[in-house]
Amino acid sequence: LEYLPAEILSMILRSLTGRDRLNLRICCRTLESSVASTDFYNDSENVNHCMGLIEYDIGRVYFQLDRHLRIRICDFDVQQLWQLQLVRKRLFKRARVGMLVLSYINFDKIPLSYINQLLEGCNYRSLQMDRNHYDTDERALQFLNANARNVSGLTTYNMPLTQEFIFSLPPMRVLKLIECDISSENSEAVALKKTDMHIELLKKGHQLIDHEIQVEVPKDVLKIFETVSTTSQEQSTRFDVSEEVMRNAMAQLFFVLTKDGYARTENTDSRVTVNNYKDKDGVWSGNFIVHRENSLIFFRRSWAISEVVITNRKRSRAELMKTFLNR
Q1: Where is the F-box domain (predicted)?
Q2: Is the pTM of this model over 0.90?
C-alpha cells in the first residue's frame, strides 16, 4: 500500500464479482505509514465490497475485518499503542465495527488504562476477549467494569484457575445453569464446586450485569450436557450423545425456562430444534442452538458448567441463524 495507490486497489476490488468477492486477504504487509492503509479501509465503498475477510499487519498489531465488520487484535504491546491509536481514530469510528476481539493480550504487562483508551468512544455491539492472561480475577473484573459503558454485547474471557466464563452486558441476558436435586429443599447444597466459583465471580461483577438469571436444572438433564470429551489443545468439545437424547434434553431445559416464566410458548417441543452439528463419526460436535420464534437460544458448552445466552432481538429466524453461523 506504500507503492500501490489505494485508488488502483479499490478499482481492482470493485471489479470483482461473485465468489471472487467472498474472501479478500491483505496480510503480512509492512506498513510504514498507517495513513495509507487506513485511507484504503476507511473508504466506505471498499468496506461494502469486501464481503470476506481482510487481514493486515501493522507491526505486531493484527487486524481482522470481515463482512460483519469484526476486528481482531492480538500480539498487542505498549510499543504499538501509537499505531493502534491512529488506526482506531480513522478505522474503528467510521467502519461501524460490529465486534472487537482482543486475543493473546497479556493484561499483566499492559496497563488497563491503555486498553481503556482503545475502547474509549467506540460503540461496539460486541467485545470478545479470549485466550488472554490475567494475574488475578480482580484485574479481569476491573477491566470489564471500567468498560461496561463502551461494550454492549457478549464478552468472553479466560482466567487462571477457572473455566471459560461468559459475561453478558445489556441488552443481552445470561442464564446460569446450576445443577440441582429436585428432591432436595436446598438445591444450592448440591451445586458443583466449579459452579460455586462462577457464582462468586458473578457476585463480584454484579454491578456490570443488568440481567442475571440463575436457572436450576435437574441433575438428569444437566448430566447429558456433561457427557463430553475434550480434544486437542484448543479444548474443543464433542457431544457423544444421540440426536434423540440431545433433543430430549433441550426440550426439558426449555421446559425449565418456560416454567420459570422467562421463556413463554404454548407448544415447547415443536419449537425446539437442535442444530445438526455432527462430525464424520456421527457424534455431536461444537455448539448447538435452539430456536424460539424471533429469539435465539445459544447454548455453549464450557469446561465446567453450562451457560445459555438468550437474545431477544426482533429479527427473523433466518437472520438469527445467519448471524449465529457467521459469528
Answers
A1: 1-44
A2: no
